[in-house]
Every structure is written in C-alpha cells, then in structure tokens.
Design a protein that fits this description.
The protein is an alpha/beta fold and about 400 residues long. The chain is built from 16 helices and 13 strands. The strands form 3 sheets. Strands 8-9-10-11-13-12 form a 6-stranded mixed β-sheet, with helices on both faces. Strands 2-3-4-1-5 form a 5-stranded parallel β-sheet, with helices on both faces. A two-stranded antiparallel ribbon has the order 6-7.
C-alpha cells in the first residue's frame, strides 16, 4: 500500500491554542478521521490507548494506576499532557481524570470514536466545565490538496482514502470499514440482538441518507417495530456515524411545514458502500448525492467556524423546500444545491419564496459547479462548490 503523507487539519491549531491555555480537551470523531495521527503530533508526555484489551483491563481493575503514572512523570514540565485514546472504552476513568485536572497535576486530551457509553451512562462523568469538546470530522474541501467532485461523492473524504491513489484499495478500505466497524463493532457496542435486522437497517438507512425519515415505512420493510428503527438510528448517531438535521418549523403563514428530521451518513464513501451501491450513478442520483455532500460540508463548517451556526432544512409538503438553511441564532441563510454549471432564474424560485417568508434573511445561495461566483438575483448568489468553506467558515 502506498505511503501516506500528513494532511494539515484546521482543528490542529485550535487544539494547540487550548493546550497552551492549560485546558483539557474531549476530542470525538468517527473512526479513521485522523484523531490518533493528529494527537501524535502534539508530543504528549503519556499516551494511553484503551483500544488494547490488556491496557483496558489494567485500568478497569485499578483506576488509581492512572494518577500514580501521572505523578511519576515528575517535573519534566509544569503541566504534563496526557492522552487517553478511546476513552469511552472505560468511562469510569473520567472520575480519576477529573481529580487530576482539579488538582492541576496534568492536562488531558481524551479521544473517542463513540459517544454512546458517555451519553447513555447515567453515572458517567462528562467533566462539565473542565474540558472543551471538539469534533474531528473527515476532511473538508479546504483541507484536501486537489479535490475532485466525483471522487468526493463516490469515495468520501476520510484521510486515508484521500491519500491513496489506487481505486481498488479505496474500495477495499471502505468495504472493511463497513463490515468490520459498522456491522461488527457498532452492533456489539449497542448489544443488538437481531443481527439480521440491524444489517438490513444499515443498508436501508444508508440508501435513505438525506431523505425525510419515515420510521413506519422502514419498520415494515425490515420487519421490526418502528421503535426499534428509532433505537437503531440512535445507535448510529451516538456512534458518530450519522448526523441529525432538524427542520425549521416556525412560519407566520405556513401551517404544514415538515417536522420530521433528516439523517446524513458522516462520509459519502462509507454511505455508498453501506448502501451497496456502485460507483456509476444516474444524473438524478448525482444531484441527490451532491446535496448530501454540501450538507456535510456545511455541518463541518459549523464546527470549525468561530461564528457557530446550526444547519437545518425547510420544507412545505404542499409547496417549496430549501435543501439547507444556516441558522446563526439571529438570521437564516437559505442554501440550494444544483447539479449544474449554468444556474438560472428557475433554480432560485424556492430561495425567493424563503427570503420573502423570513425577513431576517440577508442572502441566499445556490451551490453548484459554476466556475465563478455570480449574482442571480438581488440577494441571491451562485457560488462554486469549492468555495463553500470560504463563505461559511
């Protein structure tokens, strides 16, 4: 397999600043998004990987070992930096971490590829006020040296996938991700009893990514209760495999706005392989995939941006809909995606309806394959997909 080179992450500078301020970090992100690679560049005094069963069992038997190891570091630096990788494997270790932080004996970077045991454990200490929570996603467009749209739609943007040139190897890696991690580890962590129904759900949920979720329809197709389908989605969300996107439901004139939410698979390549789809797609499907890709980019921008915003969508079942809406708490910014390089007036009719409906909206955008930014209407611009991060970061 070809050797990989490091791709600089936008989160790296933020992490370094937090460490310099003597603060601790909880860094969550799906598997293979580059957490370990990034952490290895920070020159920690002690790295503990709870992925290894023998290490995990060691701390489970005697939690006080951690404090003893920290104290043994001596005076190499005023505040030693400790990394605990996959901290969700031993959630009770968070109590010891809290004591060490409170006593100013060390700073921590705690990483995890699942928040399920952290979120669902009633007795788990999430260190409120003691750690800054960050997320490491797959690469965004600005982090990829030379990004090609079709490649991103078909293979996604996990760092290892981006740095490997051979397409067969990319396919093998994605297949391994789906079978080894999604179908085995996620299932075992969640203690899924009906293995067959969960495997079928995984395939259907990947196919339905980006659509309004109909729990009852899925339950009929898979043959389990709709409450079970809801629990399966909860598992994927906790394991950072899907992103939940809420609808905008407030309107002065429209009473039937959609209240159901959407889910997006965290990576386009993982989604395609989980859905058992090939790399040859129809134009209609490419438009849907492009919409999901832009939605993911916006979500990742929201986590990296200093402005902090929420990504939503807007849909009236009897009329217009807008793919994505940026909600910064004060204003809405509607965003449409179009699989074209020549956007026209007909592409902005729903944006105009939205801008007229919500007077706090300043601008609307059509994200497409246009080579340059252009003005389509008084408050509506078309922008190239490569510039999305420049607009919203």
């Amino acid at each position: 397999m070809e050797c990989m080179h490091y791709i600089t992450r936008l989160q790296e500078e933020k992490i370094k600043k937090i460490i310099d301020q003597k603060k601790s970090i909880l860094l969550l992100g799906p598997r293979q998004t580059g957490k370990s690679t990034l952490i290895n560049r920070l020159q920690a005094d002690l790295v503990i990987s709870l992925v290894k069963p023998e290490l995990r069992q060691r701390y489970e038997k005697n939690l006080s070992l951690l404090e003893g190891e920290v104290l043994a570091l001596g005076n190499k630096r005023k505040t030693p930096l400790i990394v605990i990788d996959e901290v969700q494997k031993v959630p009770v270790i968070m109590d010891v971490v809290q004591n060490i932080i409170d006593d100013k004996k060390a700073g921590f970077i705690l990483t995890g590829s699942s928040a399920r045991k952290l979120r669902r454990g009633s007795d788990v200490n999430l260190l409120p006020g003691r750690v800054i929570s960050l997320r490491l996603d797959p690469l965004i467009v600005n982090e990829i040296p030379s990004s090609q749209l079709m490649h991103l739609l078909m293979y996604g943007s996990l760092p290892e996938i981006i740095t490997i040139k051979n397409q067969n190897q990319k396919e093998e890696l994605l297949e391994s991700y789906v079978t080894t991690y999604l179908e085995e580890e996620v299932r075992s962590e969640a203690v899924v009893r009906n293995v067959g129904s969960f495997a079928r759900f995984l395939e259907l949920s990947a196919s339905e990514s980006g659509s309004i979720i109909n729990l009852r329809k899925l339950s009929q197709e898979i043959g389990v209760a709709h409450t079970t389908i809801n629990a399966y989605y909860e598992i994927l969300e906790d394991c950072l495999i899907i992103e939940r996107v809420e609808p905008i439901t407030k309107s002065k004139t429209r009473k039937k706005l959609t209240k159901a939410h959407k889910y997006l698979f965290f990576d386009m390549g993982v989604r395609r392989v989980a859905a058992r789809e090939g790399s040859h797609q129809s134009r209609e499907n490419l438009g849907k995939l492009f919409e999901q890709f832009i939605g993911l980019e916006l979500i990742r921008c929201s986590r990296l941006s200093k402005k902090r915003f929420k990504v939503c969508f807007w849909r009236d079942p009897d009329g217009p809909e807008v793919d994505w809406v940026i909600d910064d708490g004060n204003t809405y910014t509607p965003v449409e995606t179009k699989w074209t390089d020549t956007p026209s007036k007909s592409d902005i009719k729903h944006l105009k309806v939205f801008l007229n409906e919500y007077k706090n909206s300043k601008f609307g955008y059509v994200i497409c394959q246009t080579p340059r930014k252009l003005l389509l209407d008084e408050k509506i611009f078309a922008i190239p997909w490569q510039e999305i991060n420049n607009v919203f970061l």
